[in-house]
Specification:
This protein is of the alpha/beta class and 383 residues long. It contains twelve helices and twelve strands.
């Protein structure tokens, strides 16, 4: 049996997404900026995708900016905001558990643009105290970035509480929702958030497609210049096939949430967690004990006495595919910066596994992992 449990790294594109992209590639070759018939057909694809995404995510079509992925969206949100706001202040606040794309963009602002940076540490269970973020704010804070859901532990962060304070103080607030879209409901219009990033390949869309929701009236400096595409925020001919695939993936993810797909995924995740706890002595969950504080699909565990690399190799041989860290460092066995920030001891850092399910995960696959993983852990511990 082959079991893919690395869905926080990337997901398989949904068949409906593949068919949508195939149709656009085959039938709509025009440039959306051209005024002739093929160009107008491509523009129609783009406009319909923007309207569909807006309807699903509770925003206005003009607030949807299509990008090349989550990392680009995060970079545009942070660097583009700081370039637009640095005459008002130079302080940026993030958390220590942000995705590397956010942390790297914030550090770039510090190193290249003179920003001052504060990184709020998590509690030992990976959650963030909103009061700690508020305490980090200063008179010259112009930007706060706090992810909606952590990519490694699945922890849901208190963006509503933080965003409300930022709004009261006139501070721009960005959230990286790359690991949240499709797993928890998102209503941009109802959230105290100015900028929201997402990436299609995390919710069964294509790689190379992302979005940034930009609240009306927010000024950003573009990072890619040339043409006036995407309201002047991202120059370059739009990739209509990838945009259409992203929009279809957002639609499917939204429909899945409404039909209870994530409740089924959560039940499978919980069953796996309980089985592994019962069968592996010393196993620890890296994250809050309350499962409601984690996205439904993610389980991050440590098996002290079993090195992560050996576990991954042993599981791979059994047809089980997972990871020991974030997607962007999945080729590395270096300890996770998220788990380090949580203050985990060395034996848990070096033995951590992230198991992330999808809406396509089947009960029999979870049963197989629950049988095989304890046996692999026992073999590794005996080495």
């Amino acid at each position: 049996m082959q079991v893919y449990l690395d869905n926080n790294a990337t997901t398989a594109p949904a068949p409906e997404v593949v068919e949508t992209m195939r149709r656009v590639l085959a039938e709509v070759p025009g440039n959306p900026s051209s005024i002739h018939r093929p160009g107008r057909a491509a523009r129609r694809i783009l406009d319909e995708a923007r309207e569909s995404v807006a309807q699903c995510l509770g925003c206005q079509p003009r607030e949807v900016v299509f990008t090349g992925g989550g990392s680009e969206s995060d970079t545009l949100a942070l660097v583009g905001s700081f370039l637009a706001l640095r005459d008002r202040g130079k302080h940026i606040v993030v958390t220590a558990v942000e995705h590397s794309a956010v942390l790297a963009a914030a550090r770039w602002c510090k190193e290249k643009l003179g920003a001052e940076l504060s990184a709020v540490p998590p509690r030992p269970d990976g959650t963030i105290d909103p009061a700690a973020v508020v305490e980090a704010l200063r008179e010259d804070t112009v930007l706060v970035s706090v992810m909606m859901a952590n990519n490694e532990t699945g922890v849901l962060l208190p963006i509503r509480e933080i965003g409300e304070v930022c709004r009261q103080r006139g501070i721009r607030f960005h959230t990286d929702a790359v690991q949240a879209l499709g797993k928890v409901p998102i209503d941009f219009g109802a959230l105290p958030v100015d900028l929201l990033s997402a990436s299609a390949h995390k919710f069964h869309g294509p790689k190379g497609a992302g979005l940034l929701l930009v609240r009306s009236g927010m000024r950003l400096e573009p990072l890619i210049v040339g043409g006036g595409q995407e309201r002047g925020l991202r120059a370059g001919t739009e990739d209509t096939a990838h945009v259409a695939g992203l929009a279809k993936a957002v639609e499917l993810a939204t429909d899945g949430l409404r039909s209870g797909v994530m409740e089924r995924v959560a039940a499978l995740r919980d069953a796996l967690e309980e089985a592994l706890h019962a069968r592996i002595e010393g196993l620890a969950v890296n994250g809050p004990e309350a499962r409601a504080l984690r996205v439904p699909n993610t389980l991050n565990i440590s098996i002290p006495g079993a090195e992560a690399e050996a576990l991954l190799i042993g599981l791979d041989r059994e047809g089980i595919y997972c990871s020991s860290g974030s997607a962007c460092s999945s080729g590395s066995i270096e300890p996770s910066h998220v788990l380090r920030a949580m203050g985990l001891p060395a034996d848990r850092l070096q033995s951590s596994l992230r198991l992330s399910l999808s809406r396509y995960t089947r009960p029999e696959e979870i049963e197989y992992v629950a049988e095989v993983l304890p046996a692999v852990a026992a073999r590794v511990r005996a080495l």
